[in-house]
């Protein structure tokens, strides 16, 4: 498959012609041939021509595709100088005599057959005048083959033109919540709830940010967790991993002596108040306290928590510069400043419920009487302004970090009020459908994230007063339940398929037994016939003995009877041989039946086990809640961190990361599952573990970072050319790659995902480029397809070839496995889809009617249906059991190259040459369009 969008970028242009021309063609050249000789440049006399630098690249570009070790057309191999010197054609290159060297004569069109011919099928071009001049000078100079440099020539990569945004790769998580899509040499991550990208993968080198690859991204894979992405490009494969947090150093905190902990809005500093009335402020990343101040606390605050389960609520508000902190309990406020010895005292008259710094000298507080109080400091004097906002207690006030003057107040019933700085009043801005127990305002003040008493996570849009419930249950528990249910359904499919196989094996045994019964009756008949013939022979002998005078007639009769007896004995022997063969066949069939029955029994046992696992997952899911009361909105609202509410097993209370769109990103196992979020800022959180330790975790600017690169675009690489296809083993531990130089032997290699080490490289797996690699659902077999029109099945454990499937008449471009493990589907540049019986290796159905090549296909969940893309910008769904087309949807993308689906086949992601990808269901309904655009 030659991709139209990259034809101008291909490194190899192939040449196809026949070299097997006799010497007489040289002697008998016509005047017309001489007249058509190509123009040849003149080189300066002192111009030195080296084979490795000047000639080899020309041959590689225009000739080697058809004249190499695997395809020596006309007995000519032009891969190396050594191969040229040892060619079967003595006059291929005659040192010092270019006018007599067949290579130069045919390349310059001075003799027939010219190379390349006009009708070559690999888009080969004639040699340029300069290339012919270099070839001629090299032969004139003695055709010396110099030593090529050991390392490939470094390439100076230029930025890919912005107009080249072809989508070659798309990959979707099993549950369909995330999609990785390539646009040219860039990779973006999208969720299922918004067309806005979550992140663009990039290489960060100091202050410079580069695209994920230098050249087009050819294929992508994102794992089921959403935490690992693998991308394939020119001579390399890159492994990316999600690493949203890194631990940071902080001073040790004595929790037994701690009354309150808080973090400033940016998350750069935090403050701790001890029972001794000591306020300590530290910078995240430092192991010492930045500054400390002591003041007198009421005695009841020092001991109250030891005596009651409902202690006085103490709050700290640390300003963003970490130069001052407000400490509040009951109606009292204390202002502690780094530059002032005395502590400032404020009294709100009513019990305070919330507190926020607006600016350096501007503090906002809320009361249990429905008031919001603004405190302003002017030359060390604080003034208070009261605003009656609600008829009941204000639950919380929240300011937007990007616009601190933007303030939202919320009461216990879920009523919201927005501060209008122009009118200096609070204005009602709607009501939450359910009261919140905790809330956090996005940095721009547009979105209010909330948690509810039931443990649900929700998002409220301030502008249009709309509410969206993001999740009720722990997403990790929900994902586990969905996976366990899927595994149960897949096992159910396998049981059904195995029951069919077992039934067929039983039918085969019955048929063979019936055949043996028939043979036994036939033997019985033939035995009787033999006995009858034997009796007649005996009678004839007696007749011959008693009637000597009729000896001649009797002997003739005896011969006839003996011949009939021989025939009967032969027939009986043949029947007995058939019986023995049938009995052997019966034993084989009975063994096969026993094997199928054992497999069926194991599958049924496995099915019951998976059902039990799914039932347990259902219980855990049902008892879980999406989040505890406290959560964190970070990095200007682009990430939300939650901790699942208590379940029956606290060790299963996982941390989750969400995108601003409400898409669940992933579980975060690196955070302590038994921990509790005690403070958060825009870029940092503090988590307290049950072991008494408090840890700081800083949010990295990028969610995904490059973990490892296998190969290189320049310099040594295990890949000869573009890596066109990748697939990850169901275990997640193995990576298969496919590619190779066009019109040369293909490549497929097996790698260890954990460290990128090579496990196995199969020599010459295909006669041409490998376009597709796919592991079977059980991980035991790898299927590969290539430009040589072949599909090959390999044993993953040993790397041995199991069988080859033949039938396509052009490149095999895509492979998909049926979940039942009995069926394989392939797409081809011959504009067909073939469905194969894996056991027999025969194509059971060929689906036609495509206008152009078939580029990608996937099975629809565990159904006998295929999703198919091709070069005509249409997404189709076909049945594999009868070939019927069920969906025919025109989508954006022009020439479609990319296709993937979620686990159950309810959603697909398709993309193509126009740089657009579409989220579409199996009925053809399109929900989202993704493009590079602006992030």
UniProtKB/TrEMBL annotation:
UniProt-listed Gene3D superfamilies: YVTN repeat-like/Quinoprotein amine dehydrogenase (2.130.10.10)
WD repeats: 763-804, 805-846
Keywords: Repeat, WD repeat
SMART domains with a match to the protein in the record: WD40
Protein name according to UniProt: Protein containing planctomycete cytochrome C domain protein
Organism from which the protein derives: Rhodopirellula baltica SWK14
Superkingdom of origin organism: Bacteria
Pfam families in alphabetical order: PSCyt1, WD40
PROSITE patterns: WD_REPEATS_1 (PS00678), WD_REPEATS_2 (PS50082), WD_REPEATS_REGION (PS50294)
Keyword match Repeat: yes
Segments for region (Disordered): 604-625
Residue ranges occupied by any Cytochrome C Planctomycete-type domain in the UniProt entry: 63-119
Organism ancestry: Bacteria, Pseudomonadati, Planctomycetota, Planctomycetia, Pirellulales
């Amino acid at each position: 498959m030659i991709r139209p969008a990259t034809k101008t970028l291909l490194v190899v242009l192939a040449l196809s012609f026949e070299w097997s021309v006799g010497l007489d063609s040289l002697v008998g050249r016509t005047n017309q041939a001489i007249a058509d000789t190509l123009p040849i440049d003149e080189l300066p006399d002192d111009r030195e021509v080296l084979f490795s630098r000047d000639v080899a690249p020309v041959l590689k570009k225009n000739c080697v595709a058809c004249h190499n070790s695997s395809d020596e057309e006309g007995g000519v191999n032009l891969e190396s100088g050594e191969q040229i010197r040892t060619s079967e054609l003595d006059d291929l290159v005659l040192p010092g005599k270019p006018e007599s060297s067949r290579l130069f004569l045919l390349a310059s069109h001075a003799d027939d057959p010219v190379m390349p011919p006009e009708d070559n099928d690999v888009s080969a071009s004639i040699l340029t005048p300069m290339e012919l001049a270099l070839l001629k000078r090299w032969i004139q100079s003695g055709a010396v083959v110099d030593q090529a440099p050991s390392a490939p020539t470094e390439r100076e990569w230029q930025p890919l033109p912005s107009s080249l945004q072809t989508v070659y790769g798309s990959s979707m998580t099993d549950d369909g919540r995330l999609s990785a899509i390539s646009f040219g040499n860039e990779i973006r991550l999208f969720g299922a709830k918004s067309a806005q990208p979550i992140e663009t993968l990039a290489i960060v080198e100091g202050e410079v940010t580069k695209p994920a690859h230098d050249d087009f991204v050819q294929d992508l894979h994102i794992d089921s967790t959403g935490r690992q992405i693998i991308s394939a490009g020119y001579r390399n494969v890159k492994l990316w991993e999600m690493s949203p947090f890194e631990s940071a150093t902080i001073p040790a905190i004595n929790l037994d002596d701690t009354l309150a902990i808080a973090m400033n809005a940016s998350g750069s500093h935090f403050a701790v108040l001890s029972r001794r009335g000591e306020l300590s402020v530290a910078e995240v990343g430092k192991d010492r306290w930045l500054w400390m101040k002591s003041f007198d606390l009421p005695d009841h605050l020092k001991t109250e928590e030891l005596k009651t389960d409902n202690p006085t609520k103490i709050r700290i508000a640390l300003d963003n510069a970490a130069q001052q902190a407000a400490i509040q309990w009951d109606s009292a406020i204390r202002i502690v400043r780094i530059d002032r010895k005395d502590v400032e005292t404020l009294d709100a008259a009513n019990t305070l419920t919330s507190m926020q710094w607006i600016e350096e000298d501007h503090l906002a507080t809320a009361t249990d009487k429905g008031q919001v109080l603004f405190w302003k400091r002017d030359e060390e004097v604080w003034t208070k302004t009261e605003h009656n906002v609600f008829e009941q207690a204000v639950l919380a006030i929240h300011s937007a970090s990007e616009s601190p003057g933007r303030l939202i107040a919320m009461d216990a019933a879920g009523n919201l009020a927005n501060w209008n700085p122009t009118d200096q009043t609070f204005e009602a801005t709607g009501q939450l459908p359910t009261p919140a127990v905790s809330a956090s305002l996005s940095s721009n003040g547009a979105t209010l994230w909330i948690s509810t008493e039931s443990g649900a996570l929700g998002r409220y849009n301030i502008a249009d007063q709309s509410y969206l419930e993001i999740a009720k249950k722990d997403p990790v528990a929900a994902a586990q339940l969905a996976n366990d249910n899927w595994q149960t359904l897949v096992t159910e499919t396998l049981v059904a398929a195995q029951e069919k196989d077992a039934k067929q094996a039983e039918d085969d045994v019955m048929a063979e037994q019936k055949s043996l019964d028939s043979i036994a009756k036939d033997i019985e008949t033939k035995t009787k016939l033999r006995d009858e013939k034997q009796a007649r022979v005996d009678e004839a002998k007696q007749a011959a003995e008693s009637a000597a005078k009729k000896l001649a007639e009797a002997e003739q009769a005896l011969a006839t009877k003996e011949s009939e007896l021989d025939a009967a004995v032969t027939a009986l022997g043949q029947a007995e041989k058939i019986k023995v063969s049938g009995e052997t066949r019966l034993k084989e069939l009975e063994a096969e039946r026993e094997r199928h029955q054992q497999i069926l029994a194991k599958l049924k046992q496995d099915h019951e086990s998976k059902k039990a696992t799914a039932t347990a997952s259902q219980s855990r899911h049902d008892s879980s809640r999406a989040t505890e009361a406290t959560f964190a909105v970070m990095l200007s609202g682009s990430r939300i961190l939650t901790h699942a509410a208590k379940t029956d097993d606290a060790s299963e209370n996982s941390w989750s990361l969400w995108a601003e769109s409400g898409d669940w990103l992933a579980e975060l196992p690196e955070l302590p599952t038994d921990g509790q979020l005690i403070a958060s800022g825009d870029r940092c959180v503090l988590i307290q573990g049950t072991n008494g330790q408090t840890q700081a975790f800083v949010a990295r600017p990028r969610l995904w970072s490059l973990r490892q690169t296998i190969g290189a675009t320049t310099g040594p690489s295990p890949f000869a050319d573009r890596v066109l296809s990748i697939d990850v083993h169901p275990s997640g531990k193995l990576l298969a790659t496919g590619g190779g130089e066009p019109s040369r032997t293909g490549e497929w290699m097996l790698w260890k995902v954990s460290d990128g080490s090579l496990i196995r490289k199969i020599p010459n797996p295909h006669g041409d480029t490998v376009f597709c690699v796919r592991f079977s659902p059980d991980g035991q077999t790898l299927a590969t397809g290539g430009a040589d029109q072949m599909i090959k099945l390999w044993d993953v454990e040993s790397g041995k070839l199991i069988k080859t499937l033949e039938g396509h008449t052009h490149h095999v471009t895509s492979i998909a496995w049926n979940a039942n493990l009995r069926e394989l589907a392939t797409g081809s540049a011959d504009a067909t889809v073939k469905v194969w019986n894996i056991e027999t290796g025969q194509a059971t159905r060929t689906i036609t009617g495509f206008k152009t090549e078939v580029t990608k296909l996937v099975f629809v969940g565990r159904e006998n249906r295929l999703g198919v893309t091709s070069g005509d910008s249409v997404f189709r769904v076909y049945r594999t059991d009868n070939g019927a087309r069920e969906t025919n949807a025109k989508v954006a993308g022009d020439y479609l190259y990319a296709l993937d689906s979620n686990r159950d086949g309810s959603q697909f992601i398709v993309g193509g040459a126009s740089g657009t990808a579409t989220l579409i269901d199996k009925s053809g309904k399109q929900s989202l369009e993704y493009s590079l655009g602006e992030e």
